[in-house]
C-alpha cells in the first residue's frame, strides 16, 4: 500500500508518472533499452530533453530571451554559480534573509570574499529575529549591488512572497526550489530563477536554471562546470546531464498538462488545498500554524501544538494511519505538511480528518 507522503523533498510523485516509468522501464518507445541506459547523445534522449524544455517553456510561458539550463549540483551549487556568473561592476549582491536557504546562499556569497578582496554580500532585510515567521517588506534596496537575491518560498518556515520586492531596477534572482510550477509566475520579472527538481518537478539530481540570455557572458576565468555560458553554449550537454531526472521531469510536465492544462488551474487547486488546511488550523484548539497569515506558503505548511510531547504523539498517530514525513524541521519543531502539486486535494482532506480525530482525543 502506498503511504501519503508529506515530505518536503524529495517528495511524492504523481502515480501517473510512476506508472509510466514502470511501463517504459525495459523498453523506451521501442528503442529496446531504458532511459537509464541510453547515450545522452542519442536521438531518443535528444527528443526527451527537447520535449521537456518545450513543455516547461509552454507551461511557465518563458519568453524567448530566456535560456533554460538543465544542471546538476542541486539548488546549493547555484549559491556559488549565480555570483561567479552574475557579478558585474560591484562584485556584491544583497540577500533577503528569510530562512535557512537564503542564509546558506548568503554564506556562499561571503565565501567569495577571498577571491574578490572585499565584502561580497549584504543583508537587505531579515526576519530572523522572529524565527523567520514572515517575509520582510518595504525595505530599502542597498546601493552598489549587482543583484538582489530572494528565496521565494521558504520550505522550512512555510513563508512565501505574495508580491515580489520592488528592486528599483536592480536585477532580481530567486530560488523557486519549493514553489516552481505551483502557480503562474511572470518570468520577465526575474533575471534568473532556479529550482531543484525533487519537490515539484520530479526527482533529485537535476536543477533547472532559467536565465535572461543577455546575462550569459563568456568569461574564461570561470571554471567550465560553473559557467552558465559553457552550459548554455552546449545546450546543457557540456558533460553528461542527469538523463533519468530530465526524463522524469518531462513526465511530470506531461502529467500537469493532462491533469490541469495550465498553471492557473493548478494554482487554483493548490490554493484550495492550502486553504483547507489553514482554515482548520485557524479554528483548531490544539494545532496552530507558525507562519504569518499574509505570507503563508501554498506548498509547505508548518504547524505546532505548543507541546513537544503532544507533537510527537500526533506524528506517531498520523504515521499509524499512513501519513508519513510529517515531522517538522528541527528549527521550527512540530509538524510540517508539504503539499506539493502531486498531493491530491483528497489527501489533504484526509489529513485534516486525522487531525480532527486526534484533537477530539486530546480535548
Ligand atoms: N533552496 C530551497 C528553498 C530548498 O528547499 C532546498 C532544499 N530543500 C535547497 C535550496 C537546496 O537544494 P539542494 O538540496 O538541491 O541543494
Task: Describe the model.
It is a single chain. 45% of the residues are buried. The protein is α/β, with parallel strands linked by helices. The chain has 2 domains: 245 residues, Aspartate Aminotransferase, domain 2 (3-Layer(aba) Sandwich); 101 residues, Aspartate Aminotransferase, domain 1, CATH 3.90.1150.10. 36% of the residues lie in helices and 16% in strands. The protein is globular and about 65 Å long. Strands 2-10-9-8-5-3-4 form a 7-stranded mixed sheet. Strands 11-12-14 form a 3-stranded antiparallel sheet. 4'-deoxy-4'-aminopyridoxal-5'-phosphate binds next to helix 3. InterPro entries: Aminotrans_V_dom, Pser_aminoTfrase, PyrdxlP-dep_Trfase, PyrdxlP-dep_Trfase_major, PyrdxlP-dep_Trfase_small. Pathway: Amino-acid biosynthesis; L-serine biosynthesis; L-serine from 3-phospho-D-glycerate: step 2/3.
Keywords for this entry:
3-stranded antiparallel β-sheet; globular; alpha/beta; Aspartate Aminotransferase, domain 2; binds 4'-deoxy-4'-aminopyridoxal-5'-phosphate; pyridoxal phosphate binding; 363 residues; 2 domains; 7-stranded mixed β-sheet; 10 helices; PyrdxlP-dep_Trfase_small; Aspartate Aminotransferase, domain 1
Write the layout of secondary structure elements.
Blueprint: E1 4-5, H1 15-24, H2 43-60, E2 66-71, H3 74-86, E3 93-97, H4 100-111, H5 113-116, E4 121-126, E5 147-151, E6 153-154, E7 159-160, E8 171-175, E9 192-196, E10 207-212, H6 228-233, H7 243-259, H8 263-283, E11 288-289, E12 300-304, H9 308-320, E13 323-324, E14 335-338, H10 345-362
This protein binds 4'-deoxy-4'-aminopyridoxal-5'-phosphate (PMP).
Amino acid at each position: 500500500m502506498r503511504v501519503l507522503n508529506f515530505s518536503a523533498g524529495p517528495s511524492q510523485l504523481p502515480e501517473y508518472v510512476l506508472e509510466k516509468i514502470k511501463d517504459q522501464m525495459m523498453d523506451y518507445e521501442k528503442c529496446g533499452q531504458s532511459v537509464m541506459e541510453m547515450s545522452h547523445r542519442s536521438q531518443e534522449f535528444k527528443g526527451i530533453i527537447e520535449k521537456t524544455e518545450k513543455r516547461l517553456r509552454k507551461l511557465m510561458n518563458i519568453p524567448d530571451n530566456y535560456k533554460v539550463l538543465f544542471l546538476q549540483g542541486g539548488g546549493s551549487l547555484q549559491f556559488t554559480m549565480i555570483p561567479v556568473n552574475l557579478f558585474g561592476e560591484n562584485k556584491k549582491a544583497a540577500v533577503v534573509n528569510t530562512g535557512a536557504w537564503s542564509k546558506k546562499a548568503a554564506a556562499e556569497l561571503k565565501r567569495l570574499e577571498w577571491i574578490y578582496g572585499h565584502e561580497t554580500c549584504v543583508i537587505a532585510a531579515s526576519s530572523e529575529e522572529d524565527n523567520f515567521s514572515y517575509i520582510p517588506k518595504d525595505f530599502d534596496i542597498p546601493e552598489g549591488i549587482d543583484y538582489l537575491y530572494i528565496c521565494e518560498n521558504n520550505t522550512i518556515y512555510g513563508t512565501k512572497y505574495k508580491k515580489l520586492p520592488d528592486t528599483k531596477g536592480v536585477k532580481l534572482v530567486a530560488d523557486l526550489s519549493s514553489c516552481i510550477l505551483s502557480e503562474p509566475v511572470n518570468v520577465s520579472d526575474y533575471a534568473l530563477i532556479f529550482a531543484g527538481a525533487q519537490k515539484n518537478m520530479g526527482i533529485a539530481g537535476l536543477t533547472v536554471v532559467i536565465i535572461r540570455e543577455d546575462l550569459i557572458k563568456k568569461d574564461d576565468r570561470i571554471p567550465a562546470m560553473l559557467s552558465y555560458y559553457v552550459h548554455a553554449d552546449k545546450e546543457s550537454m557540456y558533460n553528461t546531464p542527469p538523463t533519468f531526472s530530465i526524463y522524469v521531469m518531462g513526465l511530470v510536465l506531461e502529467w500537469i498538462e493532462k491533469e490541469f492544462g495550465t498553471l492557473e488551474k493548478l494554482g487554483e487547486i493548490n490554493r484550495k488545498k492550502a486553504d483547507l488546511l489553514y482554515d482548520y488550523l485557524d479554528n483548531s484548539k490544539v494545532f496552530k500554524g507558525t507562519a504569518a497569515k499574509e505570507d503563508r506558503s501554498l506548498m509547505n505548511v508548518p504547524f505546532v501544538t505548543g507541546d513537544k510531547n503532544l507533537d510527537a504523539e500526533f506524528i506517531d498517530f498520523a504515521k499509524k494511519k499512513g501519513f508519513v514525513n510529517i515531522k517538522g524541521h528541527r528549527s521550527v519543531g512540530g509538524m510540517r505538511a508539504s503539499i506539493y502539486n502531486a498531493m491530491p486535494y483528497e489527501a489533504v482532506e484526509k489529513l485534516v480528518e486525522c487531525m480532527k480525530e486526534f484533537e477530539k482525543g486530546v480535548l
